[in-house]
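call fold(seq) -> tokens
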Amino acid sequence: MYSLEDINNRMEHSLVSNLGIKVTYVSPTQIEAVMPVDERTCQPFGFLHGGASLALAETLAGVGSMLLLGDDEYAVGAEVTGNHVAPAPVGITLKAKAEIIHQGRSTHLWNVNIYNPEDTLISTVRVLNSIQKH
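ret:
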């Protein structure tokens, strides 16, 4: 099992760190992270960009699948579908919670909910990872 420090260090100098995403909790079936809504993650009108939400969700699902796989396996995103249900203004920090809902040999399906600081649902995202052998 990787530590939070190992996971966050592994994501340095990538899209994940450039968006300010930090993993805050890991277990075999759940992953949590935070992401700021700022100049890196907003659209031109001062609200969270939907693409940043999807990147956050795919990151959590990818980390979650990575933690479940053997040394001879890796996961790649196969499908990401999201529903953005509320706006998130610049200046807040979002929290995301991912939970695996199917762990098969060739696919993992994750549900990721993204909340504002008041626990209002901002986005709900499904991520399907394809499990590959090295």
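The chain has three helices and six strands.
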